[in-house]
Design brief:
single chain; 109 residues; mainly alpha; 48% helix
Length: 109
């Protein structure tokens, strides 16, 4: 279980050609409501898609997305850059997932 296909679709739609990666999903210094306002619908769309990813395979970005979701009423360019950082982090860990191996159907105690 990795959701890598869905995450790749999010990249294609919102990363604007930037294929770089980062090792952490959040930069706390960016959460200020300053800067040029951006399209609220696009920002909310990214947030909701990432919430889906959190629920199914990436709980490690939950804190970051909860912080970003507070800015959906008045998102700025800085908020969009912060969301793009989360996307870069997901690109870094896109192949991570839960891998099951086959064991016998009998549970031994």
């Amino acid at each position: 279980m990795s959701e890598s296909y869905y995450v790749e679709k999010i990249f294609d739609k919102f990363s604007k050609g930037d294929n770089s990666t980062v090792k952490t999903p959040i930069d706390i210094s960016i959460f200020k409501n300053i800067g040029k306002r951006i399209n609220q619908l696009e920002y909310s769309s990214i947030i909701w898609r990432l919430i889906y990813v959190i629920n199914y395979s990436r709980p490690n970005i939950a804190f970051s997305i909860s912080k970003h979701s507070k800015s959906t009423s008045y998102p700025s360019m800085d908020h969009l850059k912060a969301i793009q950082r989360v996307l870069k982090y997901l690109r870094h860990i896109v192949d991570y997932g839960l891998h099951y191996t086959s064991y016998s159907a009998v549970l031994k105690v």
